[in-house]
Structures are given as C-alpha cells and as structure tokens.
Backbone:
C-alpha cells in the first residue's frame, strides 16, 4: 500500500485564530479517510491547504511521494465547500473547462454526467440549477478526469434524502474500485457508513485518528427483555462479565466485558429458566464515540 | 500556452458581457475614426491655450499624420477594454471559479498568464482594427501617397499597442487585488484621472514621467498643437517606450505576487 498524502505539522493561522494546528495525517492508497469535526474545527481549511488554495502558515504536505502539487492535482478530483462553476456555461461546458485544465480529453464527459444523474439538464446553464443539481455537477467535475484520489468536502451538503443516498452509493462504488477517498464531513453517520479510517479534529487539533472499526471496538451493547423483568435483572446482575446495566422502560441495556460471549449469556439465562423475549446486539455509533472524544477534552 | 489560450476562450466566448462590451468598444471606435474630420469641426478651439485653430480645416487624416492623430484618439476608448478586463477577472472571484481552476491543477501563475493572453488578444485585435481603419481612411484622404509615406509614423501604432497592454495590465492588477467588480472599476477609472495626477503634482517633471499613467500618456502625446506651429515630436522617444514596457513587466510581476499571497 503506497502513501498518497502526508501532512506534517501543517498549520494555518488567521491573525489570532489558529484554524489548524500541527496537523499530522497519513493517507494510504485505497483508504476511505474521513475527517470529522464540528463546524469551525478546521476541516475545510485543511482541505484548502492540501489543494493549494490556502497558503499554510507553517508545516508541510506531500502528495504521491513528493510529486509537485500541479501534477498531483491532475490526478485528484475534488469538491470544496459550495459548488463553484461559471454560471453562464452549461454542465458540459463547465466540465470541458475542467478537462482543459487537466489536459484530458472530453470522452468521459457524457458518461460522467449520466453517472451523477444530470443528463436531462446537461445543456442548461449552471445558474438555472438547484443546489442539489449543483452538488451533482461538482461531483461530476471531481470524477470526470478519472482521478486516483477524491477529495470531498461535505459532498452531500444541501441535498435531499434521495440525492444523499445517490451520492453515497456512488462514493461507495468508486471506493470499491480502489480509488482513495479523503472526505470531510460533520455528518457522523455519513462518515460511519462510508469511511474506513477517520481523524477527528477539534479547534484545529487532531484529537483522534485510526480505523473506524477501532474507534467503535468495545462499543457493542445488548438490549434484552423477558416476561419477568425482576428475575431477569437479578440474573443479569449475578452474571459475571457484565458492566453498565441500564434499566429502561421496556428493556435492559448491557455491555459485555471482554471474555464471555453473547452465546454464553443466552445459554446461562435459559439454564436458569428465563427465555428472553427480546435479545438484540447493537454496535455503538460514531456519534456517541465522537461526543465522548469531544467531551473528554473538557 | 495554447492550453491556457483555449481555456480563456472557453470562458469568454459564450459570456454575453464579452460581446456587449467589446462590441461597444469597436462600434464607438470605428464610428469616431471614420467621422473624425467632421467631429473635429464641431469642437470649438477658440479658447484653447494653443491659439485659434479650426481642426475641421486641418488635414488630420492624411498620411503620415493620420497615425499619430488616430492612435491618440483611439486611446480614449480603451476605458471600455479596461472595464471588460476588470469584469473578466473579478467574475472569477465573484463566482469563486478561481478555486475551480486551482483545485484542478492550474497554478496561480498560469491563471495570470491566461488572463495576460486575453489582454494580448484584445490588444492585438484593437491594433488591427485601428491599423485597418487608418489604411482605409488614409487612402481616402490622401491624393497621392507613396508606400513610404503610408508607413511613416506607424511607430504610433506600436505606441498604441504598448498603451493598451499597460492599461489593461493595470486593470488586471486592480481586479486581482480588490476582487470586487464595482470598486475595481471605480479605481481603474479614478486612479488615472485623479489619484495619480494629484501624486504627480508633488514631483518635478524629471520624476513624474516614471509614474505608470504618465508613462502611458507620454507614449502618444497630444498631436494637435503642431497645426498652430508648436513643435510636437513625430515619433515616440525610446525612453518612453522603455518606461512603458518596464511598467507592463512590473505590473505583471506585482499581479503575480498579490495572487500568490492570497488565500482563495
């Protein structure tokens, strides 16, 4: 696996505001890397720096083993903040601008427009598009030159639920083909659904990074209920290997300690004559972990 | 280079403002040049500091004088070209398309060069229009003109070309610097008319020839006093050309420096 992007001590100050502080990231090929953080945590500034539109105050970044930025950008497709295009040009004409800059041909333009679902309006001028259509064109611009890497800043911003689902599926499909994706979002469930790795930013500082599976490990919870809740509660508290027994109106929520499995627990209850009417395992969400990480710093 | 030129054409060709503003420029320019002799008669020069001349009686449009006279007049219309350059560059900031260009691999330097190519194109077309108009009008107004007489003084065409490049590079710099259309047009109009003259007023002539607008104005000086016997040079001093070209280079480098330091 080759390294696609590294940043070392990358920082950006705007006067007294430290938008990004000493950021170290490493993204390898094939990863779907999410960069998470609340609004104003420095996600867009970070993407702006690695794409060359914001000058870093200090620190460095490197694409593809020190390829010059200009050449690296030919191989990168990107969306940054709001979609920006020439309002008087059509989707096709705007994409021709992109392929001209990248020194590529126009063969892909129609199929890319088709892929993002914009074919019907491909010859109308950009200024007549809805926000969702603009966002689709932005994705088309990112894809049109067959990029090795996609850099996406809030790619589903302003889209309706159908649009969000379309774009997510498209991103997953692209990731399946081995394209490396670097995605910034404040939508946690989006990152959880799409990303393999994640970095969490807060006030410009990285407070966590690692595989998404890692961050959610140990977050498995079990919901359980039986006809005799009193007996169930008693048995559960006697079972060795349970922590955090929470009683809700119609279920208990428990967390297993390392050691006993769900099967062991089930077997134990049946042996004691209690047949659970509800037994469900659920993984923790990135949301709960994320809030935990943010609160940890306070 | 061809890639940048084609890119700039793609951006401008279907932009209505491109055709409207440039169309207005060439319409006014050609109309005035072809009617210059009549228009000159309608101007009252009786209070002029140069004495009483009736320009309608003066052969303004004969070779070789015509080149100095029409390039001087043509210079006034460049304001429209300057306004278009400001719009072409500030649009990129207003629409935020400068980002679209950069994230796809255009460097900031290439971005400026592509605008410089637009400036070169517009200046060359204007030069050709004035040259063609001069030839046609000159031939109609000169009874017998030898080839030598026809191209004599054509250095003023070169002066006109330098004047356009200087002015349009100035407009480009203002647009890149201020990013907003309205205020940039205001500065491009007011600086040459008001700001620089006030600045120059503090300096002796030996220094104020180095100011950018002065450098532009002294390429083609006011030609008409020669018709009341006051001496007007019938060529452009080398120093004026050197200062003019130097300013084009300085403005271009400054524009690059400004864009390089901007977060976009």
Residues:
């Amino acid at each position: 696996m080759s390294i696609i992007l590294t940043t070392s001590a990358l920082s950006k100050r705007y006067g007294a505001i430290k938008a990004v502080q000493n950021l170290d990231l490493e993204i390898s090929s094939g990863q779907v890397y999410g960069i998470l953080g609340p609004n104003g945590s420095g996600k867009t500034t970070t993407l702006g720096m690695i794409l060359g539109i914001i000058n870093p105050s200090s620190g460095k970044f490197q694409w593809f083993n020190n390829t010059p930025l200009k050449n690296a950008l030919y191989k990168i497709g990107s969306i940054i903040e709001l979609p920006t295009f020439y309002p008087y040009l059509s989707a096709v004409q705007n994409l021709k601008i992109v392929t001209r800059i990248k020194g590529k041909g126009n063969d892909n333009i129609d199929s890319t427009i088709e892929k993002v679902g914009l074919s019907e309006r491909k010859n109308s001028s950009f200024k007549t598009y809805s926000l969702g259509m603009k966002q689709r064109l932005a994705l088309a611009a990112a894809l049109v030159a067959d990029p090795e890497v996609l850099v996406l800043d809030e790619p589903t911003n302003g889209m309706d639920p159908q649009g969000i689902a379309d774009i997510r599926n498209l991103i997953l499909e692209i990731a399946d083909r081995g394209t490396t994706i670097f995605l910034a979002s404040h939508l946690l469930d989006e990152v959880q659904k799409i990303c393999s790795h994640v970095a969490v930013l807060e006030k410009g500082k990285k407070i966590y990074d690692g595989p998404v599976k890692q961050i959610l490990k140990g977050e498995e919870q079990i919901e359980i209920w039986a006809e005799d809740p009193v007996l169930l509660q008693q048995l559960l508290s006697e079972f060795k290997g349970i922590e955090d027994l929470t009683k809700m109106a119609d279920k208990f929520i428990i967390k297993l300690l390392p050691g006993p499995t769900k099967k062991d627990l089930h077997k134990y209850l049946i042996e004691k004559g209690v047949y659970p009417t509800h037994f469900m395992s659920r993984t923790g969400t990135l949301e709960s972990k994320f809030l935990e990480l943010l609160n940890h710093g306070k | 280079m061809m890639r940048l030129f084609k890119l700039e054409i793609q951006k401008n060709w279907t932009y209505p403002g491109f055709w409207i503003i440039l169309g207005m420029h060439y319409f006014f320019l050609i109309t005035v040049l072809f009617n210059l002799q009549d228009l000159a008669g309608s101007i009252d020069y009786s209070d002029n500091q140069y004495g009483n001349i009736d320009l309608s009686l003066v052969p303004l449009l004969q070779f070789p004088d015509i080149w100095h006279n029409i390039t001087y007049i043509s210079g006034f219309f460049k304001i429209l070209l300057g306004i278009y350059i400001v719009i072409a560059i500030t649009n990129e900031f207003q629409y935020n398309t400068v980002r679209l260009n950069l994230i796809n691999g255009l460097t900031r330097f290439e971005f400026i060069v592509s605008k410089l190519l637009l400036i070169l194109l517009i200046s060359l077309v204007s030069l050709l229009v004035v040259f063609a108009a001069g030839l046609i009008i000159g031939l109609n107004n000169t009874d017998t003109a030898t080839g030598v007489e026809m191209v004599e003084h054509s250095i003023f065409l070169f002066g006109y070309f330098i004047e356009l490049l200087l002015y349009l590079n100035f407009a480009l710099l203002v647009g890149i610097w201020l990013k907003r259309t309205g205020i940039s047009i205001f500065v491009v109009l007011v600086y040459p008319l008001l700001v620089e003259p006030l600045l120059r007023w503090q300096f002796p002539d030996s220094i104020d020839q180095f100011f950018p607008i002065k450098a532009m104005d002294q390429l083609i000086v006011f030609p008409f006093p020669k018709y009341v016997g006051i001496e007007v040079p019938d060529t452009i001093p080398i120093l004026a050309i050197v200062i003019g070209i130097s300013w084009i280079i300085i403005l271009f480098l400054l524009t690059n420096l400004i864009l390089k330091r901007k977060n976009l």
